Design the sequence.
């Protein structure tokens, strides 16, 4: 959540920052409601003070033989008046909260304004493959090698789904093991969170209330619950409503989960197969840091995602996103995009983002610094990695003329020592 104090103190700065995210913002209503809130708060407090003063005078008046009925009547009248003021105050605070909670996070100052057209490639690893034969796309390769069953997935589930079979299932599991092994070696704590979350979790992550329709909700369940779209939603809630100590930061977590997305995307040729679906596997990293430590944590997480792809020997590109292409809750994002030869484009397999204190404000995740001052944590997240695009890139970039696929060396120990996956003989 954007700090309302910043909105009130620097409204033009906030307006300009949000404009970089293509968000039109007029601070007037927030300013007016905030002024009204302060006025009502002062009125309520003064009223209570007057009630207390009158109540305390009762013993003295009684002792002096005075009539206390008038005092009791006055206290009763003030209490009734205060009830109305408190109700108006609560309504005003609710309106104010509703206006602030839907605002996106402010982008970092160094980001370019606008959308994806202003994203900036800042690093490329490897070379785009040049084949001496006519290469196949990942759908053809996965079917000919018996790695994926798209037809039966459509039969038992529908479009936008797939079934890993035989060596395909083992290759997917090898990728997940490779990611997990690397995160453990880097000192991250492994978490297996629940896949069904409560509304507060979506709110803290910044997905609700604006993006409530983008997730799968459980029908007939109260209180409302939804299926996680990414493990980030669970991990950034681990310390919700908690006070941490500066010495305990940073806290580094990762989780493996399937991810469930309501919109599987279009049925365009470029999004066939595993490129976009309702369910896919992902290993997600999250850090809780001090305000001073979040930039270093961001750089570390970007490098971790890069190393994973480099270990697989896959060609990829690192992009710095423009403000308008960063997600609603994020102040800064770098995308790592892997090369898909059949599509002739790079596709995102990891987004590393810094939410600054946006999520921590929503979830009241705080820490005490060495001087005892209470501050909001910074939260960061990054895919490490999502397999649904790594898998297609891996099979396409490593295909051979005979239709076989070379298994990256780092995965072979989970594939029983196999080095090549060959087409199934018909």
Sequence:
């Amino acid at each position: 959540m954007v700090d309302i104090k910043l909105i009130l103190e620097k409204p033009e700065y906030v307006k300009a920052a949000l404009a970089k995210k293509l968000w039109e913002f007029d601070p007037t209503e927030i300013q007016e409601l905030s002024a009204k809130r302060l006025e009502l708060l002062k009125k309520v407090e003064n009223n209570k003070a007057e009630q207390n003063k009158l109540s305390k005078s009762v013993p003295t008046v009684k002792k002096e033989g005075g009539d206390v009925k008038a005092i009791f009547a006055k206290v009763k009248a003030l209490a009734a008046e205060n009830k109305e003021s408190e109700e108006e105050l609560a309504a005003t605070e609710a309106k104010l909260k509703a206006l602030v909670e839907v605002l996106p996070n402010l982008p970092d100052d160094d980001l370019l304004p606008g959308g994806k057209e202003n994203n900036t490639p800042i690093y490329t690893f490897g070379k785009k493959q040049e084949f001496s034969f006519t290469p196949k796309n990942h759908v053809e390769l996965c079917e000919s090698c018996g790695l994926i069953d798209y037809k039966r997935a459509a039969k038992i589930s529908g479009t936008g789904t797939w079934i890993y079979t035989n060596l395909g299932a083992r290759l997917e599991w090898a990728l997940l093991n490779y990611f997990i092994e690397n995160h453990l070696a880097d000192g991250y704590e492994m978490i297996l969170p629940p896949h069904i979350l409560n509304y507060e979790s979506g709110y803290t992550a910044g997905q609700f209330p604006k993006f409530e329709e983008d997730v799968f909700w459980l029908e007939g369940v109260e209180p409302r619950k939804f299926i996680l779209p990414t493990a980030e939603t669970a991990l950034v809630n681990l310390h919700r409503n908690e006070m941490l100590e500066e010495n305990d930061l940073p806290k580094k977590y990762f989780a493996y989960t399937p991810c469930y997305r309501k919109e599987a995307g279009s049925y365009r040729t470029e999004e066939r197969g595993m490129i976009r679906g309702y369910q896919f596997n992902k290993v997600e990293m999250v850090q809780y840091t001090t305000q001073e430590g979040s930039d270093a944590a961001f750089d570390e997480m970007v490098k971790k995602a890069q190393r994973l792809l480099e270990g697989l020997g896959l060609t990829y590109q690192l992009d710095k996103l423009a403000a308008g292409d960063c997600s609603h809750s994020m102040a800064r994002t770098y995308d790592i995009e892997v090369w898909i030869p059949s599509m002739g484009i790079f596709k995102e397999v990891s987004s590393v983002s810094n939410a600054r204190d946006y999520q921590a404000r929503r979830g009241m995740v705080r820490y005490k610094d060495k001087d005892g001052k209470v501050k909001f944590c910074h939260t960061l997240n990054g895919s490490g990695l999502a397999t649904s695009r790594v898998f297609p890139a891996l099979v396409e970039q490593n295909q051979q003329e005979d239709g076989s696929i070379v298994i990256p060396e780092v995965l072979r120990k989970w594939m029983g020592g196999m080095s090549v996956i060959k087409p199934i003989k018909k």
User: Anything to note?
Assistant: Confidence is low (pLDDT under 50) at residues 265-269. Residues 28-63 form the longest helix (36 residues). The longest strand covers residues 279-289. The chain has twelve helices and 18 strands.
